[in-house]
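#data-curation
PF: Archiving a pair of folding outputs for the training set. Convention for this channel: one message per protein, sequence first, structure tokens after, nothing in between. First:
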Amino acid sequence: MDESHALYLARHGETDDNREPIRVQGFTDTPLNDTGRREATELAERVAPMGFVSLWSSDLSRARETAEIVGNRIDLSVRLDPRLREANRGRWEGRRFIDIEREEPERYAAWRSAPATFHFPGGESLREQLERVTASLADVRRSREIPALVVCHGGSIRVALCAQDPRGLEVFHRFEIPNVALVPL
């Protein structure tokens, strides 16, 4: 493990909704599918030798189950924190991105081109997500139970990375975070 990183973020495994064509999940509590469970098992094997002393997770089932599979392998209990959730994407949740792009082209373009000012219809902004995710990660650091593994969501990892970049949320869409990606922070 790179000793300069006290935290590692991991994205949950696959769900039926994050297979093409991708559906917006957000706060929707979508479970892992069989592929996602296999991916979580592979993540557990990758992180087993890394010496984590604490394990944290979003409370949404796709992240929680991924963390539980990892925790069983590395003998750590999972601490749940709802602040680690994906963005509340409001009325977009459950819809396919390709349909949103076709049916709401201006709003979709705003989402892709100006993430720092975008607000999901009936949901939250990425700034709100960034504030709650970074507050949670600050609490993990303050716990001094590090190195720590935090299992969460692609958007949550992206906002955490944006918080470290001087360009902020404007670089949100530049980060590719595949299922069970492991990202040092």
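PF: Second:
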Amino acid sequence: MNTIAVLGVGRVGSAVARTALAAGYEVNVAGSGPAEDIAVLAEIVIPGGRPMTSADAVADADVVIIAVPLNKYRSVDPVLLSGKIVVDAMNYWAPVDGEIPDFEDVGVTTSEIVAQYFADSRVVKAFNHIGYHDLECDAAPAGERERRALAVASDDEDAACVVMEMIDRIGFDPVYSGRLRTGSALQPGTPIFNGSFTAAELTRELESARMVA
């Protein structure tokens, strides 16, 4: 895997893009409009990132990271992402963003709903439980003691493995939590969302969440 597309150039998208660039990936970035609308922003905030339209950004990408506000996820054309590994890095912040009817069913995780919309994509939940500022500050070489871990959830284990390899390359220990429904343990308000863990610690937190569920 060599090319990553990041849809969304806010704080999260920009941090993910910079982290991927630092790890040696080619990174295409796209906002909601023409490439020229974000060209200056990309040059300043994401040096090395290639500003493109969404369609062009995902065309040659091995992995597509969606980092738009969750209430705008339907602004991304699912046809563009057909067959692609799609990373859902979004969160539901009702107190901040207001209630979104799509996500008010507490029995279904946000990523399961996102996966229904991107039905022809291989959806993986990742990057949602680390602060955008921590992505660059906490990245560490493989094997380093106390290296921070990030969880990955997906109904597609092969897609999860690809994203886990990417997470390892950018500086974190990947931990597979299981199917998308296990992503409930990574959402806002959970111990995992609010904390920083090594791989062993994160595994224990995930096991604890499964016991509670």
